């Protein structure tokens, strides 16, 4: 066995079984050299995604966000935030307090999106969102104020401006008609106008990774990367404008939403995809799309483990060859089971409880094997994520021609926050893959909501500074004219 976490939990498994088990697990165990190769491939794809002509066919979309700066600590004011990224969405009232360098969540409300609405007409969805936003404004006595809105919309979009964002495709089980190819800000504004009982101010469109980076960036001004590892996975970072060929301008930086979940959609990860990854992809609602995400994110990890356990049972290696009806049901092995199984303190108890719940007849060796399977698959996820993050940090360092980069990554997502070993393994692996980068990790609290408000606040600060600059230039010109006339 290699030195992955899984090798730490092998006691109690007979030697002959261990050798056989290794044959099943080996495809999941990626060497440091292989991870470096994966990291290099992603860096190559990032360059393709940024290119003026190559981005059309690039699997890693590298979408410009039109977020031109991270917080500088002078932002302030009251904002609304909308956070839509799954079966629930949140409405928030956020206050940014300059004196305390704090982003305060004043109040929030969670609204559900019924399953049929996720698959119905887009107008119905946006009317529902506008209704929930209206209820919130009314119940919090915010009517009559026209507050700016940060809109976190966690689906692949092509942003045209800070307030114009075209949905490329639905993911995460959504399939609303009439939205793909449309500007989601416009659809939201139209739904609010149809109601006619409240108004909102300027809208800033934010991806959840950008929100995560910005919410952490107010507390730590060296935060220039946002990363999500939850139901799905994605990352953003501050890129030099001169490399963003699809947007005019050479000066400064712009935040790029990598959409790294699509890495491998062109077949570039075929050599590390296992038969189980292929099965998960083929059974998904979007086969052939978001290959990298399907290897590492919370929506799929439990299913990879389930398919591996089914195979081990079919081959008479587990549970005396007897699978339960529950184990044979897709989705029955939840990703949260992996976290519960890997909790050090009650590890075997938790495995045994879960196996019983799945209707399986097990012995202690079975329980230990299941633990090693979970370890192996979550370990691969953390290591692949580290390879992707190393691609970004190494790119930033090279962009800036630095011998050493010191940066902070804002992180959100249940896999990173809830799994007992994931964050530790990711951090240890990224140190090996990006040795010249000193990376601090900061967990984002309410990242999507507070971050959306933060993007709006930064956009307002930049607009304010731009106006002041124009005014002062105008005054200078007037003075020059006066001098000439005199």
UniProtKB/TrEMBL annotation:
E.C. number: 2.7.1.-
Residue ranges the record marks as coiled coil: none
Region feature Disordered, mapped onto this chain: 466-486
Residues covered by the Hexokinase N-terminal domain: 21-218
InterPro entries: ATPase_NBD (IPR043129), Hexokinase (IPR001312), Hexokinase_BS (IPR019807), Hexokinase_C (IPR022673), Hexokinase_N (IPR022672)
Keyword Kinase appears in the UniProt entry: yes
Catalytic activity: D-glucose + ATP = D-glucose 6-phosphate + ADP + H(+); a D-hexose + ATP = a D-hexose 6-phosphate + ADP + H(+)
Signal peptide: none
Residues covered by the Hexokinase C-terminal domain: 224-458
GO cellular component, one term: cytosol
Protein name, as recorded: Phosphotransferase
Pathways per UniProt: Carbohydrate metabolism; hexose metabolism; Carbohydrate degradation; glycolysis; D-glyceraldehyde 3-phosphate and glycerone phosphate from D-glucose: step 1/4
Source superkingdom: Eukaryota
Biased composition (Acidic residues): 471-486
SUPFAM superfamilies attached to this UniProt entry: Actin-like ATPase domain (SSF53067)
Keyword Amino-acid biosynthesis: no
GO molecular function terms listed in the Swiss-Prot or TrEMBL record: ATP binding; D-glucose binding; fructokinase activity; glucokinase activity
Record keywords: ATP-binding, Glycolysis, Kinase, Nucleotide-binding, Transferase
GO biological process: glucose metabolic process; glycolytic process; intracellular glucose homeostasis
Similarity field: Belongs to the hexokinase family.
């Amino acid at each position: 066995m290699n030195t992955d976490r899984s090798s730490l939990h092998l006691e109690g498994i007979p030697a002959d079984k261990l050798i056989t088990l290794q044959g099943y697990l080996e495809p999941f165990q990626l060497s440091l050299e292989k991870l470096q190769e994966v990291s290099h491939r992603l860096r190559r794809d990032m360059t393709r995604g940024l290119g003026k002509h190559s981005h059309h066919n690039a699997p890693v979309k590298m979408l410009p966000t039109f977020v031109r700066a991270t917080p500088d600590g002078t932002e302030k004011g009251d904002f609304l935030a909308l956070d839509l990224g799954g079966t629930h969405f949140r409405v928030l009232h956020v206050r940014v307090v300059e004196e305390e360098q704090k982003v305060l969540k004043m109040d929030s409300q969670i609204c559900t999106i019924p399953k049929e609405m996720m698959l119905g007409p887009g107008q119905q969805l946006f009317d529902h969102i506008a209704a929930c936003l209206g209820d919130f404004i009314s119940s919090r006595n915010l009517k009559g104020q026209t507050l700016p809105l940060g809109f976190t919309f966690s689906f692949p979009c092509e942003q045209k401006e800070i307030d114009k964002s075209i949905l490329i495709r639905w993911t995460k089980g959504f399939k609303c008609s009439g939205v793909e190819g449309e500007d989601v800000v416009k659809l939201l504004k139209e739904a609010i106008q149809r109601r006619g009982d409240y108004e909102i101010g300027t809208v800033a469109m934010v991806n959840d990774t950008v929100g995560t980076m910005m919410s952490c960036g107010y507390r730590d001004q060296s935060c220039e990367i946002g990363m999500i590892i939850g139901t799905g996975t994605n990352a953003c970072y501050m890129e030099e404008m001169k490399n963003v060929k699809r947007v005019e301008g050479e000066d400064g930086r712009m935040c790029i939403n990598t959409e790294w979940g699509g890495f491998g959609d062109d077949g570039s990860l075929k050599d590390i995809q296992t038969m189980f990854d292929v099965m998960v992809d083929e059974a998904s609602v979007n086969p052939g799309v978001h290959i990298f995400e399907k290897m590492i994110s919370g929506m799929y990890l439990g299913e990879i483990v389930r398919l591996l356990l089914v195979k081990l049972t079919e081959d008479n290696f587990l549970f005396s060859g007897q699978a339960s009806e529950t184990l044979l049901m897709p989705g029955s092995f939840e990703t949260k089971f992996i976290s519960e199984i890997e909790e050090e303190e009650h590890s075997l108890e938790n495995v045994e409880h879960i196996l019983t719940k799945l209707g399986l007849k097990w012995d202690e060796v079975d329980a230990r094997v299941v633990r090693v399977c979970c370890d192996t698959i979550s370990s691969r996820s953390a290591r692949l994520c580290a390879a992707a993050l190393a691609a970004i940090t190494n790119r930033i360092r090279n962009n800036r021609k630095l011998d050493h980069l010191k940066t902070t990554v804002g992180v959100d997502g249940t896999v990173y926050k809830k799994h007992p070993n994931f964050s530790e393994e990711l951090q240890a692996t990224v140190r090996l893959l990006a040795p010249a980068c000193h990376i601090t990790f900061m967990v984002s609290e309410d990242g999507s909501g507070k971050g959306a408000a933060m993007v709006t606040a930064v956009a307002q600060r930049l607009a304010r500074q731009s106006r002041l600059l124009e005014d002062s230039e105008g005054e200078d010109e007037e003075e020059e004219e006066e001098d000439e006339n005199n």
